[in-house]
Amino acid sequence: MKAFLDEQFLLNSQTAEKLYHEFAKNLPIIDYHCHLSPKEIYENKTFQNITEAWLYGDHYKWRAMRANGIPETHITGDASDYEKFLAWAKTVPMTIGNPLYHWTHLELRRYFDVEELLNEESADIIWKKVNKKLQGDGFGARDFIVKSNVETVVTTDDPVDSLIYHQQLREEGFSVQVLPGFRPDKALDITNDLFIEYVQQLAEVSSIQIESYQDFIKALHLRIDFFHEQGCLISDHAINEMTYEDTTEEEATIIFHKRMSGHPLTEKEKVQFKTHTFIELGQVYAQRGWAMQLHINALRNNNSKMFERLGPDTGYDAMNDEDIAKPLCRVLDRLEQAHALPKTILYSLNPRDNVVISTIAGSFQDGKTPGKMQHGTAWWFNDTKQGMTEQMMALSSIGLISRFIGMLTDSRSFLSYTRHEYFRRLLCDIIGDWVEKGEAPNDLNLLGGMVKGISYENAKQYFQFERANELPHKSKMI
User: Fold this and answer.
1) Hey, which CATH number is domain 46-134, 1.10.2020.10, 1.25.40.850, 3.40.50.2300, 3.30.430.20?
2) Are 331 and 244 in contact (CB under 8 A)?
């Protein structure tokens, strides 16, 4: 029987142990998609206590606490931080079998040297021990990033964002590269109640008057130019429901004018606008050499009562089960026909889509860029032992896992980098199992190179973040 979280955690063969400890463990981290705050990174935010660092904004933990019967006052409400921590400590033993149990204790060990298991009995001791460290030097937001051996962080930023903190970090010479990621979801969500207000914001930051659809697209192009000047090399789209409608620019123009005039749109018009605008953006991404991420099949804000009370991103989302194959292929094919399909990373929140995504990615490889079309890593509800394993097995069965760009945190927490360790251990265990079963050669040089590629080197080559290093230390801010 193995000890809990020992050095061989998740490594079930000697080959897996060698691959992890000799090839994966000490590699830098490229976190090419996360929701960390650039402002908090720049200010090297410190935390008054472990609750602030751990529980503020973490809807993974919030969902588990609700399932354990914890009242909302002790999750997002007005209970004290100590009371919220005790509520989480009470919940942790109930999370055995959920990656939260592993992540909780990995974070306590890696960042605070706490070996005790967290529960109601140990909570007060751990609270005092961790908080004492948080009040000392070396436990700010930047410190957690540096201690985690992170090389590059890509945040998630709206086209209207100023990116001032990215520039200030670059001017200051922070040792970790912090780059923006272009997330234009609000620009495509034409039926949102705040769409007209958003267009006005876009006009203001772009310094142009938006009176037509063409002006709207021009403003987005200008923001892409600005983001590129600030080192952006990645876009990201949340596509809760994958749809497609053949649309002309004339039709998109009419739909835009109709919406800006305050008239309601049909469902078909909504899809037409999204399709045409997305194609317009995709072509610009390709021209810029950016990678494009598509996060598909999330069903968001399902509990209307709690959405009205707490807003979005509070733990009331689920997997969607809409069919994605045909509309996704049509979107990608439309870009391919225009010779403007960018490097693309496809994620689905529904693991049912794993094989679908791997086969679609294989349909649009270009024979020039290794792994141009990526089956993205297990995401959100799937970044579990089972979810990561299923995604890697689907990819390896149908595509080239050797070209896989690996893990990201997709997190708002500065303590989440242990997820890269979790992923790397699982990766090494999968490959080690192949060796043990005689399904892969016992060649550590071959397999070690494969592990290094998936853990770090493939992402470095794929995104070419070194291009951002060529930016001037000072540039015009908008």
Assistant:
1) 1.10.2020.10
2) yes
